Amino acid sequence: MSHEVKVFEFDPEVKTAVTKFRTREEKTSGALIIRFDPSKQLLVVEKLHDDISAEDLKKELPQHLPVYILYSYFYKHDDGRTSHPLFFIFISPTGSKPELQLMYSGNKRRVAEELRVKMVFELRSYEGFTEEWLLSKLHDL
């Protein structure tokens, strides 16, 4: 039995919010939380955080639902330079409804491409989303 994955459409405000998020001038880590809204049948911006660590962010997210996160990580290099790499992170915790996991995972690549984010990662739990994990991904590049 095959399952057809629902293709997510974007609320027009998502792309506007992503553009603003990419060009923000804060010298901090920030996050844009994007979820599927079943009542609208669209991907919507759930929340914008202008200054939040990975650890604080994961405390705010419902631990049983999949989510897309656009995370701008404030990174200070050993030589004093700073950068803000942009991560697209899909978190699909064990225990989420299988239909939701399938919908989110089936759309992950297309959503990342649509938002023009190159660093795409997936986690199976919120516990794995830490600053150490982000640093390991930067060093793997």
TrEMBL record:
Q: What keywords is this UniProt entry annotated with?
A: Cytoplasm, Nucleus
Question: GO terms for molecular function, please?
Answer: actin binding; Arp2/3 complex binding
Q: Which Pfam families match?
A: Cofilin_ADF (PF00241)
**Localization terms from the record:** Cytoplasm; Nucleus
Main localization (coarse): cytoplasm
Per the record, its GO cellular-component terms are: cortical actin cytoskeleton; nucleus
Gene3D superfamilies, alphabetized: Severin
Where does the ADF-H domain lie?
4-139
Q: Which InterPro entries match?
A: ADF-H (IPR002108), ADF-H/Gelsolin-like_dom_sf (IPR029006), GMF (IPR011171)
GO biological process: one example: actin filament debranching
Question: What does the similarity note say?
Answer: Belongs to the actin-binding proteins ADF family. GMF subfamily.
Q: What is this protein called?
A: ADF-H domain-containing protein
Can you name the source organism?
Exaiptasia diaphana (Tropical sea anemone)
